[in-house]
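Reminder to self: keep the SMILES exactly as supplied, no canonicalising. Ligand is S-adenosylmethionine.
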Amino acid sequence: MTTNLFQARTVGELYRLIKNTLSESPLDNFPVEETRMIIEHVLGIHTPLLFAHPETPVSADDVGRVENLLDAYLGGTPLPYLFGEWGFYGMTFAVTPDVLIPREETERLVDGALQWLKAHPDVGEFVDVGTGSGCIGYAVLANAANPSLRAVLVDASAGALSVARANLNRYQLESRAALVQGNLGDPLPPGQRLILANLPYIPSARIATLAIAAAEPRFALDGGPDGFELIRKLLVGIRGKVANPFLILCEIDDTHAEIACDFSRPLFPSARIAIETDYAGKTRYLRIEG
Ligand SMILES: C[S@@+](CC[C@H](N)C(=O)[O-])C[C@H]1O[C@@H](n2cnc3c(N)ncnc32)[C@H](O)[C@@H]1O
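Structure tokens returned for the bound complex:
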């Protein structure tokens, strides 16, 4: 046991003890936000009640469950894997160690797709390559104006696809999405109009230096020697399968802007090629629009 939570008799005391424990831990964490999430997830006590009634009693069993979760978190398991779910684009997706934890910066792919679909309302289907939990594809389906829009979600990993299937059921999107196990764009027929991809893009040598690499699946992170290998292969494979007007939108590493443009231009000579930035101003998205 790494914490002193057993002293807590009320939710207010529990809050203070968890927050102190997290503040003192060497993890790069967000103690206030994470304490609130832990209490909400384990005890089902939402923030307004927590702060309005800190005197609410907590049982020894509840404290024990929080303590086990906190021990696992301090031991290196990310909270989303401990909770079994995580938020993305206002939705909540099942996650397991078979999939990447959905990231806030990836929401920009969803925004980009929804904007493009608004301008191209005749497009009836899109693709999400490297779908993982399915978060990108399902967020687009759930927020698109066209209620009959369909998605093809591709991933090479059977484990990832079983998580994507759980999310398909969670949001009852069975009639609007097909899950396909395969390599990059290989399973796709010609005529593609909207291709979204958050493929692994971290250069192999950098993986060992990242804390996330210990917990998240390597095949969801490792983009080969320079990190751009899978995106390169996707673009080569998809080049002959797009039909005008089309949009290819890929999340990239912030060091890849130049490689991405230089590689894409000769492949798609008549397309508009742009690099877009995230909220922090980093170059994080490759946009190829034909
Ligand atoms: C960075 S994760 C992204 C997951 C999800 N789209 C997201 O944004 O959270 C990359 C995903 O690509 C998948 N992947 C890796 N290599 C692949 C390949 N050759 N073909 C298809 N999918 C691949 C991995 O299994 C993983 O689920």
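Points to follow up:
The two ends are 58 Å apart (CA to CA).
Residues 5-76 form a domain with the Helicase, Ruva Protein; domain 3 fold (CATH 1.10.8).
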